Backbone:
């Protein structure tokens, strides 16, 4: 009697349910930002605390982490993973990674223009940024790219400890990039939170499309 293969992607109904919850949260969060209510009221306090606690060790580290999470770095990671998957003729997963990553870039541009939020005061910034603030592009991009790469590659690792370590590294990296953007004074905390939430919703949508033929 053969054992069933391990399921690595949730079923479409499960993804849909999670998507609805995330969409509702994003809607409320965006409304908070537009009206300066709810979670958005804590932005100045949290950002101010980050600015006040800067030091000579954290500042260069924040710059390094932020640079590792920029568009160029995520594009390189996406390209390398897609090439590796294509080299073993896994076109379906390569397409999933490519479409998910490219779609994130488009979502960031559209969302920023729709909300039109300004970044924190120039005097508090340790990096030059000319685009709008909400959502954080770094946070959205790293969540989407690192997230989908982790979802695709981690199940291929044979040992459980290796899978757990890879997942932990992915989570810590995404969190560190988001925190670095607040520390550098180029994003409000809710920008980062929105980036993660939007990134998660987009991944769920892409996984639902990827999973649908098998589920059906």
Residues:
């Amino acid at each position: 009697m053969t054992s069933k293969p391990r399921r690595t992607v949730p079923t479409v109904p499960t993804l849909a349910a999670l998507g609805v919850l995330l969409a509702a949260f994003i809607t409320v969060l965006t409304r908070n930002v537009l009206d300066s209510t709810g979670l958005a009221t804590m932005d100045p306090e949290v950002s101010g605390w980050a600015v006040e606690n800067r030091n000579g060790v954290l500042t260069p580290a924040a710059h390094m982490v932020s640079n590792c999470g920029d568009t160029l770095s995520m594009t390189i990671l996406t390209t390398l993973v897609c090439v590796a998957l294509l080299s073993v003729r896994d076109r379906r997963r390569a397409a999933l990674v490519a479409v998910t990553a490219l779609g994130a870039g488009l979502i960031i541009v559209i969302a920023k223009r729709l909300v039109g939020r300004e970044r924190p005061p120039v005097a508090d910034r340790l990096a030059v940024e000319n685009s709008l603030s909400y959502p954080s592009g770094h946070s959205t991009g790293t969540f989407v790219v690192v997230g989908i790469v982790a979802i695709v590659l981690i199940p291929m690792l044979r040992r459980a400890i290796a899978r757990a370590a890879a997942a932990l590294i992915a989570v810590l990296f995404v969190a560190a990039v988001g925190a670095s953007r607040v520390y550098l004074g180029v994003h409000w905390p809710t920008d980062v939170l929105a980036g993660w939430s939007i990134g998660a919703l987009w991944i769920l949508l892409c996984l639902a499309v990827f999973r649908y033929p098998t589920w059906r």
User: Anything to note?
Assistant: Confidence is low (pLDDT under 50) at residues 1-6.
